[in-house]
Records
---
Amino acid sequence: MPTLLEVKDLETQFFTQDGVVRAVNGISYSLNEGETLGIVGESGSGKSVGVMSLIRLIPSPPGKIVGGQVLFDGQDLLKLNDDEIRSIRGNKIAMIFQDPMTSLNPVLTIGRQIGEALELHLGMDKQQARERTIELLELVGIPSAKDRLNNYPHQFSGGMRQRVMIAMGLSCNPQLLIADEPTTALDVTIQAQIVDLVKRLRDEIGMAIIWITHDLGVVAGLANRVIVMYAGCIVEEAPVKELYQNPRHPYTLGLLGSLPRLDADRPEKLNSIEGLPPDLINYPKGCPFYARCNYRIDICAHEAPPLKTVGVGHKAACHVDISVAQPTTEHPYQEA
């Protein structure tokens, strides 16, 4: 499949009173047309900042994209002027945020908010936009869509608000939909409904998706490929089945070890990853996972491992082959 998006050595930093926060540190990846890419990692790993950098939504100041390229359909999004990037946002690239209540305008009706994008990007008149808005709300499963056009965000439940956000994201038939933890604030039943909805819409419309989450369970049923981020770096990238069957980075191994399993003969104790992520202002010289890793060796303390190929479509940033190595320490964590 043709490549839709190519990210090369993307770096984003925040300049604060305490120092420079290195939020995203030279990440590179690509996305094909129609593909679903999952990006996972704990809070503060750079997942959201990384994708918000793609469409230049980083608040400046204090944030700044200090290096790299974002090639979308052959053009570098980081070199476009404000009007040019605005014509792509919401049109060719749409984004769904974590909390729909803070993303929707509380004093505008749902119909007005969706219709505005249709009028702005597709040049529809008010009647055309109204009809298309009803279609979109029905598409995402809002009952009695026609009667709800004049409702305000507070008149919808959390799951319904997220469906409205998806309708808004799909309004201009984007080539790429970015979903930033869209199910985090919802209960498990509604989460499953939203994931099924996105899968169905993806298959019908054929768009590419970047799905950001800290929940590896959600990614398993949705993504074709997964990127694991830690401390602003990509530490592993693999097809989804390969990542679960053959993790090659200690951090990925730790994430998978903290998931409950349904195929175990008896309930097993879940493992936790000891310690905390590194301080992104005083960034470590070596591997960012060094302080928490129980496979570490001497070189890890002073030399950051490159992301290298370890299998077909599989890359990992680790000096140690954990598929054959034994853990060196049980509880390695040391306070910096």
---
Amino acid sequence: MSRQNYTFTSESVSEGHPDKVCDRISDAVLDAFLAEEPEARVACETFATTNRVVIGGEVGLSDKDKLHDYMGRIDEITRACIKDIGYEQDKFHHETVEITNLLHEQSAHIAQGVDAAENKDEGAGDQGIMFGYATNETEALMPAPIQYAHAILRRLAEVRKNGTEPSLGPDAKSQLSVIYEHGKPVGVSSIVLSTQHLDAAMTSDDVRAVVEPYIRETLPEGWISADTIWHVNPTGKFVIGGPDGDAGLTGRKIIVDTYGGAAPHGGGAFSGKDPTKVDRSAAYVARYLAKNIVAAEMADRCTVQLSYAIGVAEPQSVYVDTHGTGEVSDAQIETAIREVMDLTPRGIRTKLELNKPIFQRTAAYGHFGRAPEADGGFSWEKTDLVEALKATV
């Protein structure tokens, strides 16, 4: 039997964190290409440091003239992202940052493995393993530590951007150590928050006075007690933030993007990759399946693993672990998954409607545990497979 009483910690980082700036730019480039052509191919990587952003990777459109035109929009897209995040520092400003665009056309050898042909179905964009996870410990069916670590930073971003708290800067990190009793989250033993501030005279105590009310309103009632340990800006001043303070790179926050370490991770990053890349789309469908399994009350917790070979349509394996909480066997659930979901790359993209410009919004505060949106955003968070799954067992 698994442990029932323990403390588990997860962290989140804000949209102004250097790595998240890069994730945002990469996904904004992806969205721009998908808006032009739903079958666009994009693998975009971004690097950011003091006064500089470098963008590289490969892109593809069926119309080569349009591809050239879109290459010319990269500068505009990048500056718009940096402006929206809120960077107007002397050494990282949306108007003055130097942008180098090294994107090039997609390799024909990769394309031939992925594209459908007369004698083959559309294949996976790469080999790899992907995991999805869900747990009934929160309404979003997410692990509590990462869900609330994200929620704190989203709330601070809201009050920063709407002008309520103009002293806060874009760069921030949160960390929650959540106490579990009888397998359920009941409180926090420690709260760690480091946030950039624009007033150099502010002390750590001053920053805590600003952020503490928002943290308290975000966490469930009763989770903060007299024994909760607080560390707010524990190193002191945090005025220089973002890529000027530390270099950023796309895809370097994969645990923050998923389950905060509460579940396995296949190792592949998401941002900047079009949905033929199963690093992204199969991780999304694995979460979709795990969430629907828990929503169907087939288990309290569920991990789903999928594996793929480059150029091959069908997954190499489907694995389910309900961690001893299943109402039916894991093998039965594996069979049910194959019955209710087409797990080919085309099947995933069709079911979840992934060939849309919906990815920029995923770049910060987690790819999972978000509400499905009317335009198709976060479609993998729907629970519309519940009845189909129940009917198979």
---
Amino acid sequence: MAEIIQRDGTWTFDGDTVRIVPGGKAHPVRQELGEIAVPVRAVAGVSFEPDRKGGRLRLRLRGGACPVLRAADGRLKDGADPYALTVEKDRTGVAEYFVDEVRNALLIEQVPDGPVDRFLLPGPSLPVSGGGGDGTASFDGETVRLTWNWKTEESKTSAGPSSFPLSRIAGVRWLPSIGLENGYLRFEPVDGPSSAPPKYDPYSLELWGMSKKEYIAVLVAAAVLMRLPGARAAAAAADGAPPLAKAAEPVAPPAGDHDALLRRLRELDELHRAGVLTGEEFSTAKQAVLGSM
């Protein structure tokens, strides 16, 4: 088992699952998500990015595997990214070892790095709530509720808090505050999205970027997104996966299938000769295959 313990969090890998536990002072998004168990079949790659202070360990997931990443659409800052870990200078060797262990498992299990057509992680726990700016959004799995504060425009508050069932939602979009531009959490009703800016739209929250906790609104978006069949299909298509076809699962040659194992050895040799695999990676993968013969 590989394990790295840092102030930013703890990652462990047992050959099948990368278990991620955020540190006590981690970003609110990571704190709210809590412990995450990432199956190896959901992993596209792993890397360690060194710098003068230590570096960053980063897990790259297959497209469409995580509802939070799908909802964030590449807009999460590193501090809020649940799949990035700040590594201190005296633990860079441990981080590199962790990377090697995960890469070897991906190689041995023949996990493809392409997108999937369904979520492989469960997403945020319910109920979930978050937001800021002019209100708060909450979701219990069936109903979305938007409650307003004293900063909300009267066009939104006049009808009181908004509450609508999942069946009335066609889509959801989260955009964080960037620079001087406010962000938003917008729910699109089935009868068509509003043309009003988020400031005046009763299906939207404005996000002003005044607090890191506003980022938790992305978890509300993720929880809703993973329960919208149409949105799941769109997410898969956006990530390049065929939305109507089941993604191929990695299949290892069964023990005793001598011809399949020999073919796998030849493939590994070709990858090594092409420079795709290092000598150590080739040796580790070769021993695993030979152990099955």
